[in-house]
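Two quick folds needed for the group meeting slides. Do the first one here.
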Amino acid sequence: MNKQSFLFLFLLGVVTFSTAQKKKITLEEIFGGEFRTEYMDVLRSMNNGTQYTILNTSRSPRSSSLDKYDYETLQKVETIVASSDAVPYFSSYSFSDDESQVLLATEVEPIFRRSRLGIYYVYDIASKELVKISEVKIQEPTLSPDGSKVAYVLDNDLYVMDLAERTTKQVTTDGNKGTIINGVTDWVYEEEFGFVRAFEWNSDGSKIAFLRFDETEVPHFSMDVYGTELYPSQHEFKYPKAGEKNSIVTLHMFDVASGAISNVDLDGAYYIPRIKWMNNPDHLSVQTMNRHQNNLKLYDVNAKDNSVSVLLEETDAAYVDIDDDLTFLADDSFIWTSEADGYNHLYLYGRYGKLKNQITEGPWEVTSYYGYDEKHDRIFYQSVENGSINRGVYSISSKGKKKKALSTDEGTNSASFSSDFTYYINTYSSADMPYRFTLHDASNGKLVKEIKDNSELLNKLEGYEIAPKEFSTININGYDLNMYMMKPADFDPNKKYPLFMFQYSGPGSQQVANRWMGTRDYWHQVLVSEGYIVACVDGRGTGLKGRYFKKLTQKELGKYEVEDQIDAAKKLSELSYIDEDRTGIWGWSYGGFMSTNCILKGNDTFEMAIAVAPVTSWRFYDTIYTERYMQTPQENPTGYDDNSPFNYPELLKGKYLLVHGSGDDNVHVQNTMRMIEALVQANKQFDWAIYPDKNHGIYGGNTSLHLYTKLTNFVKENL
């Protein structure tokens, strides 16, 4: 044996020994919390700009405290309030504008994805007095700017409590389940426009603007709740499916002093997705949209007489996005985000809606707007200008000059600024680095102090087989699509490996991102350790590559996205180390819709697919989301039906697993039941599982462990 051969065998032995010493991640560890990541909980900057507050909680013994910290030293200054015999355990908090009062949430229970019921208290910091707002559970309590009153919703009606007088006034009286909602949103607004509280105090606390939802004509939806009793019960609510009637939404003004309610005429607006008071207490901004969501108007409502004028109007051949980036400056000029030039950017408008200038510009997207430091004329934002899979934090003047890169390490950076924009806390992670929290000087991004990292988790993972995400692009159908691939620790390019693809693919989404692992990433590590190659490709219609790339799937959901996944799988199968006869794909929700379509329309490419909580016909999904991309079924029937998988079950050749929660209020189990029936009538064999009473996330108790065990076994047995 020559020296080179001996050296090769020695090194091979070292690698083999090293690999053998590494443990494999197990499902029990994932869902037992073994790899739990530490975060900074509920951090808020105080008005003085030099301090911030954090909610600290403990499970055993069960306790909570609201603590104040100093930015410069990161040391705790004081405990503002803590749970005790006199103060119940609280799980969230908010301050009045002057920070004299704190609203504490206790006994909180979820309604839908964002809505909550709870028992709430107001704690006076100076007097240490605690006031219970209501003996029964309420929604969305909000302190007036001076902390003297609190408005909330109970049983679909709006109430205002005077804290000094301990008196409560019922503002509306027509609230009724299934017909009229005042001050909070209906199901579809909550889910698709992303907000629950539909009332706002003006800056001096003299008026409350609120939305009223008349859902009388919205079709009724019900689902069985099996529970543990002898007879199941029914969960009922109004759910407008594509093409059906929505709530009639109207805007109203409540004058606190007089108790009078007045109506605001918005010229037949179909949707009212945002209301926001300007700094001037007599002016309210209102965003409205048509049903197709391709025409947005920003109104100025004069609260003195409810007169209305248009500040700006945006139209798009596809749709206009709604966000929370609208910011009014001291003189009520405002900052706005728009895709007008083909990418999402910041714009500055004058008080009466005249465009002053475009602030950011370039072939990249602004992903978050953080705020405006008027004293130094600095706008802070997050963007993907350092690569579409990364996020960086930047500052720029309102004229679009003096740009500074603040936190731009390759990976994902996000910032939480002090109220005076002296400091920011940066949250950083990447595909190989768990979350790290650091304090920075906002003027230049300079590191001031390390706050917290996840070094303990990182050290723990050193003892495990962890496959890195190899980021790249793959040219499919004329586009360079973002991709990552994960290979086994003992990867041998001369071997053949099965390929298992993961995707979501929904409009504007992103799965190929340089950020730390979530639960599904850990599960992918389990599969990679079993000898599978896992890959993910963000196809056409996904986000952060400009308006055109995102919106070219308009009116054809499931067409181009499916073509891209099939063609990507074919191209990856050309690699020497991929077994082209063992290709699988999976996804959840929109991703389940995609994986189902892929194994049907790509039945010569995919041998296996898993669909969890999939849409199987967009006719079954809600109005706001579906019609934004598809218009209505009456207008676009072929767009709906040509890519609805239960319309062509006869195409199934490979192994298919279908999973749903019976209590899914979002993507109803009806989707899966119709898919099952179609496959049965086509005499196609497949596997399926229904999780009783579980919602769209399919979790609770041992549910996640059971689900992922089922998914793992299905992959190992069929791919």
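Then this one, please, same format:
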Amino acid sequence: MVTLRSELAYAQLSQNNANQSYQLNNPISVPYLKKNLQKAQPRLVLNQATEKRLREKLQTDPLIQHIYQAIKYNAASVLALDLITVDIPDNPRSQQNQLGISRDFLYRINMLGMVYFVEKNPDILQRLNEEVIAACNFPTWNPKHFLDVGEMSLAIALALDWTAGKLPKSTISLAKKSLIEKGIMPSWPENGETPRWVNGTNNWNQVCNAGMIAASIAIAEENPELAAKTIKRSIEGMNHALAAYAPDGAYPEGATYWGYGTMFSAVTAAMLESAFGTDFGIGDYPGFKESANFGLLTTAPSKLLYNYADSPDVPELYTDFTLSWFASKTGDRNYLNTKRFMQTPDEIGKISRLAGAGLVWTAQFEEKESGLVQSAWKGEGANPIVIFTGQGENKEGYYFGGKGGRGSISHGNMDAGSFIFELNGVRWVIDPGNQSYGVLSRAGFDLWNRCQECDRWKLLTKNNFGHSTISVDNKRHIVDGLATLVDFKGGEKPEATFDLTPTFAGQLKSAARKFIKDSPRSIVIEDQIETNDATKLITWQLMTQADIKLVDGGAVLTQDGKTLKLENLSHPDFNLSIVSLDPAPLQLDKQIENLKRIELRIPSWVLEENKGEIKVRLSGE
């Protein structure tokens, strides 16, 4: 019998992780800055040592040559674009548009800046000059949505640094003035309050602090006091975001935000190393390097992501270079997406907006012993998950991901106990994933508040009725109820158990969900339930886009010419039901073609002495 960890005990564990003794080294002061900051440019990601290695690899390494050609291809496309112009209205609904502008500018600078750095083409320098002037003449970088400022500040700082004084003096002066007035100073409000992102635990911390550190290094000679206090605050603040990777590297906000947040922590580490000779401990933060396995394993054999936590199912462009930073630090070739990088530029297409920086650290890679990618992996922490991958004959086609967590976490959903399942190239059990923030915002929908009765949970993508979990009495999950991973076994037949009791506080006395990979082509889902006096109905749910035929004791799913059997092992006499969700219940819901929810509805009176088991097996050909 598994001993279930109480929510209180786990909350204490999580708090201990957040307050762990490991802290980034933070000696930053004005004297330290003046003594230790490298004087010569470039000094952001690039410096004399990384440049030497990059230029050597550009002559000898086909991988680096291919990446650079892809950057040149993208730089040529930038030259064909108009300059960015913007007049930002004082309207919260414009925020997503401005963030897109900042990201586009960071992309342009990485493409043009790296090509200029390598080739010193005066035409590229001229276009960089025009881009910087245009961005610096924006009336504001939109500090109300500070992600916009973070990405813009990083871009301007890199443009100054990689051109190493070759821009016109008037442009350099304008850029540094803008970094101070539109970048750094808005991060120091006149009321003296510290912005929430500084010490936040999510991707905002990583992105915004990266921008502030880059901007501060760029203006350090002009205003060392402002630079020193800003860098010191950012390094201190980053502890809070990095603590979220403990203990195993599972990023609480899911795969897409892992790629985003971790990319900016990687570029911060690279900038600090190049400018000061040390990353002050970022790379050694507990769980951080281990998160490369999370980044690698959350992409399934189908190349789709395990898309929980507001994540799309298609990987973002920046993921490859996030992983290649870990390759450069570990010497593990598993983290290099060689197959993609070795494609032709037109096959690669548009590349990461931090590809210029990524090229530099990918060029630092020296292969050491590469470990085996784990076929059964767990990540604990605030939003725990497990992943089982294939072995033997189904190595390329088997993929299972299951999770705990709670709705109230950043980008969280009421999806504790949910799972996805792929076999033979087909995603049989799906997560509905994310939906457009912009569409919801323009409709006036309150997406971001997370109280039990808040609007967020009306959406099928956010509530438990859109996920492959269980529901009780047709009620929502408890938004703050933290489902924890309480047991995990690896090997050829891995198992994982989540305590779902807090998820159903007041609805059930206890609940635990076990996932068992009992063969190379199947998964067993086993729920141990104990009801309370108020419990009336337990509904087992599975989300799929497959065609479904109900049969005695279960169902047969068909998709892409392949089949999957669903066996109702515990209650074979109870019929399954199918709920069509195409169209979805609400106009604002994400519309997913052919979406269905398979339900197994178990009335509480069936359970003897209020206890029972629901057991289902999914198996393929």
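Slide caption for protein two: The mean pLDDT is 93.
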